User: Which sequence fits this backbone?
């Protein structure tokens, strides 16, 4: 069987005091045969609009929501299609990827990417990151990136980032911006 | 894999509490029954220490408020309100009688209120608010035997009355009846003033608020209140141009005005006494003149909510009180006689002049100005330091999420909410606002519903109401943005200080009973409201024996009457809500640590059962984190790193959730539920 949370969004992801993230609120969680993945659509019209895939309530809607959340984290709270109802329909055709990338780059502040002077290799990491997000947000649910692949790619990205961002570099950045590590307890308050 | 609900329902020991109270850090404790060692899955219970919350606002005696000789307008309003309530109430009762409405309880309440209104109208005793309340209590006791809860429901009536009054103002303006509009507007100003300046809008306060509303309107309408006349010269009188007799008269007049003003706004017995004292002081001497009185008023209202300013309130109170303690008197003299502090006071007071003036000029005070004024006062009152003698004030709460402990502000949304209040709203307008919830579940949002209702009754919903029944799916599909808007607004209100305060009042007897039980038996203390979930409220609770241990308590009410489809649906939803997470041992899924049941409700299966679910306390949700200023300031590189870190955990959680499967949860629940009848009391289970 295949369980779908159906309402994944930042509000339903709780962080504890150690920076661990936990999923909550399974009120509309549903289950369907695993064989139906990619074909079956859930009939209930539930969920949060910004995190719903354009093709309807498919069984892979959680993956799509994760892609949106991924963009939202980078965009500090701005979802890719928030307030822009025409974007999904307008940009989903064949050139959508370039459009999407440009739109996301612009909206999520990726144009400032090179401003940090943290190495050319990170440019490709940024692109790969966007690829993961857009793979998860693939409008066609049969082509949507699965959680296994997304998990693998994110793990790989994390490793590359860790390699690119040495300990000294992190300290420099923290000094430069006067920030604590985000995973420190109690660092989330304004 | 162990089923969380099996464990929840089978164990009968208060293991969790023993564990948590003994040592939340060790995560192990000895079972009180068989001595076996149990391990808790608690990963984090230690949060920064929080100051002891101020004691709940004590209810004060409410005098009998009479609307006045000319009671036509208010009678008309009340009549309209009651007529509509009667209509709604009768409809509810009828539906409940037919077994088609799960809001039978609500129907009875509305019916009681409607009957009470009708009785008073018939007996021509509408002008007495407390008589209406007593009548309602009598009706409630007669029909349900739960007369003690009348204040909760009466508060809802006051909200309705507020909306009707507002609507009546608009109607009067449209009809060109400026006199009536101004009088009613004046009443609303008093109402709003109290709402905005007073965060403790518990149920008792509603009664006081309406008392102020009624009394103020009564005085204004009768032209007996010297407020308008005083306003012209308030703070601007030039003593050089007046004779001594004029000045004396002026002072007397001003004293009368202040006494009326304060007794309108401070309807408590204590506040009235202060008003009398302050009014008397004007006649005795002009040491602080009206400035002192105004700051006394503002400081007094803030002092009730700001513990650090409480002593100063007492000092002012004691200044002219012959029975005051020497210590209080000394403090009072320190504050009043210190030129530096006095200068600060005067500076603060100067900001209040327009407030008084605006009330009297056109009978209307912009809500935004009141808010601004309040912010200014709040920000400056602390400048009066140093702190008066006595125990040091508790430090401000240090919780990560301010919403958990109550922000002292009223957002634009809440103000807009009041401004847009135009007419009656029924619960069935909101059938879809909480997803696929039914009316029973929606009612558990109680005051949030009422607040939201006032905002919703706008052009938007009227537009969509034309499409058809808002409860059916077609409308929902046709108007998704309406649903999104409504959901967001609801969340906004829950996050809003005012909305949250309204939510703090228990919305049902079961919840109230549970709250009491938590304090007495479970050694827990509810210290805050985290928000509202899909089924009910989420409280933050503290263990009395170990104040460092905090958890979230989620209240869930479910109708156990399985003879109806609604009951079954409720069961399934609750089971999904709690078990889908508990059935998995994933560290990326929030576990259910334990649960409560309310015994008297449990024994009577016809009544909704209230569960209390103990959850881990989280530092905050991801949304609050990624919108925080610290996260925003992170370099993009680190944001990407955080995204990877977070998403890895989320994807792991999703994977484990899918592997766990939820298909047999309903069967598990049915199987496990039977032993509940044998439970002696409350159960705490660690899973």
Assistant:
């Amino acid at each position: 069987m295949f369980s779908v949370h159906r309402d994944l969004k930042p509000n339903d992801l709780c962080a504890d005091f150690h920076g661990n993230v936990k999923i909550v609120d399974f009120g509309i969680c549903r289950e369907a045969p695993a064989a139906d993945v990619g074909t079956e659509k859930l009939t209930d019209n539930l969920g949060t609009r910004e995190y719903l895939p354009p093709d309807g309530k498919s069984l892979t809607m959680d993956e799509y929501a994760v892609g949106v959340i991924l963009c939202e984290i980078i965009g500090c709270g701005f979802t890719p299609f928030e307030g822009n109802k025409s974007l999904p329909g307008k940009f989903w055709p064949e050139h959508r990827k370039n459009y999407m990338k440009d739109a996301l780059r612009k909206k999520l502040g990726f144009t400032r990417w090179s401003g940090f002077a943290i190495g050319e290799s990170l440019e490709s990491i940024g692109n790969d990151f966007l690829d993961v997000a857009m793979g998860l947000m693939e409008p066609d649910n049969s082509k949507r990136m699965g959680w296994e692949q997304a998990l693998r790619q994110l793990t790989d990205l994390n490793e590359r980032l860790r390699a690119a961002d040495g300990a000294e570099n992190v300290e420099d950045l923290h000094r430069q911006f006067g920030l604590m590590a985000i995973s420190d307890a109690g660092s989330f308050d304004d | 894999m162990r089923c969380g609900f099996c464990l929840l329902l089978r164990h009968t020991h208060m293991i969790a509490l023993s564990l948590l109270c003994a040592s939340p850090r060790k995560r192990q404790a000895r079972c009180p029954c068989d001595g076996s060692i149990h391990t808790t899955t608690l990963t984090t219970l230690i949060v920064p220490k929080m100051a002891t919350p101020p004691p709940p606002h004590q209810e004060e005696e409410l005098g009998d408020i009479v609307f006045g000789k000319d009671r036509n307008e208010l009678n008309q309003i009340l009549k309209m309100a009651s007529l509509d309530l009667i209509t709604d109430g009768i409809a509810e009762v009828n539906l409940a009688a037919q077994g088609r409405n799960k809001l039978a309880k609500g129907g009875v309440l509305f019916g009681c209120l409607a009957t009470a209104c009708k009785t008073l109208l018939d007996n021509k005793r509408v002008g007495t608010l407390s008589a209406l309340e007593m009548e309602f209590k009598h009706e409630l006791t007669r029909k349900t035997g739960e007369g003690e809860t009348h204040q909760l429901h009466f508060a809802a009536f006051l909200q309705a009355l507020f909306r009707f009054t507002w609507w009546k103002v608009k109607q009067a303006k449209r009809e060109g009846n400026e006199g009536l509009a101004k009088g009613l507007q004046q009443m609303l100003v008093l109402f709003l003033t109290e709402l905005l300046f007073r965060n403790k809008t518990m149920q008792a306060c509603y009664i006081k608020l309406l008392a102020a509303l009624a009394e103020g309107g009564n005085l204004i309408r009768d032209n007996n209140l010297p407020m308008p006349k005083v306003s012209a010269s308030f703070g601007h009188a030039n003593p050089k141009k007046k004779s001594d007799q004029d000045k004396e008269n002026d002072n007397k007049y001003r004293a009368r005005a202040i006494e009326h003003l304060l007794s309108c706004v401070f309807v408590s017995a204590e506040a009235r006494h202060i008003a009398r004292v302050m009014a008397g002081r004007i006649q005795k001497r002009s040491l602080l003149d009206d400035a002192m009185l105004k700051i006394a008023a503002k400081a007094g209202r803030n002092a009730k909510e700001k513990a650090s300013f409480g002593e100063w309130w007492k000092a002012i109170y004691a200044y002219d009180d012959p029975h005051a303690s020497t210590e209080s008197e000394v403090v009072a003299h320190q504050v009043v006689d210190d030129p530096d502090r006095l200068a600060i006071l005067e500076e603060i007071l100067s900001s209040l002049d327009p407030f008084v003036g605006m009330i009297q000029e056109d009978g209307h005070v912009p809500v935004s100005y009141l808010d601004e004024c309040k912010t200014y006062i709040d920000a400056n009152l602390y400048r009066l330091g140093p702190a008066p003698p006595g125990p040091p004030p508790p430090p401000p709460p240090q919780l990560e999420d301010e919403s958990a402990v109550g922000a002292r502000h009223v957002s634009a949304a809440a103000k807009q909410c009041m401004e847009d209040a135009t007419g009656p709203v029924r619960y069935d307008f909101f059938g879809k606002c909480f997803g696929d919830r039914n009316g029973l579940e929606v009612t558990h949002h109680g005051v949030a519903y009422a607040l939201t209702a006032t905002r919703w009754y706008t052009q938007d919903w009227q537009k969509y109401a034309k499409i058809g029944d808002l409860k059916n799916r077609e409308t929902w599909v046709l108007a998704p943005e309406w649903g999104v808007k409504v959901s967001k607004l609801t969340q906004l209100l829950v996050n809003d200080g005012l909305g949250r305060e309204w939510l703090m009042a228990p919305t049902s007897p079961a919840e109230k009973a549970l709250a009491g039980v938590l304090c007495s038996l479970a050694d827990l203390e509810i210290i805050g409201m985290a928000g509202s979930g899909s089924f009910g409220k989420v409280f933050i609770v503290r263990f009395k024996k170990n104040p460092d241990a905090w958890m979230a308590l989620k209240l869930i009410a479910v109708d156990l009457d399985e003879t109806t489809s609604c009951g079954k649906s409720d069961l399934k939803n609750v089971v999904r809500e709690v078990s889908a997470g508990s059935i998995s041992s994933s560290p990326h899924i929030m576990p259910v640590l334990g649960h409560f049941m309310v015994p008297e409700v449990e024994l009577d299966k016809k009544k909704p059962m209230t569960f209390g679910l103990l959850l881990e306390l989280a530092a905050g949700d991801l949304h609050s984190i990624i919108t925080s200023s610290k996260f925003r300031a992170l370099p993009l590189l680190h944001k990407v790193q955080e995204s990877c870190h977070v998403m890895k955990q989320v994807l792991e959680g999703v994977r484990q959730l899918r592997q766990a499967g939820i298909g047999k949860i309903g069967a598990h629940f049915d199987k496990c539920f039977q032993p509940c009848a044998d439970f002696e009391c409350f159960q705490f289970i660690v899973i």
In short: Residues 53 and 61 of chain A are 6 Å apart (CA to CA). Helices of chain A lie at 61-74, 86-91, 96-108, 121-136, 147-164, 167-177. The longest strand of chain A covers residues 2-4. Chain A touches chain B through 76 residues (CB under 8 Å).
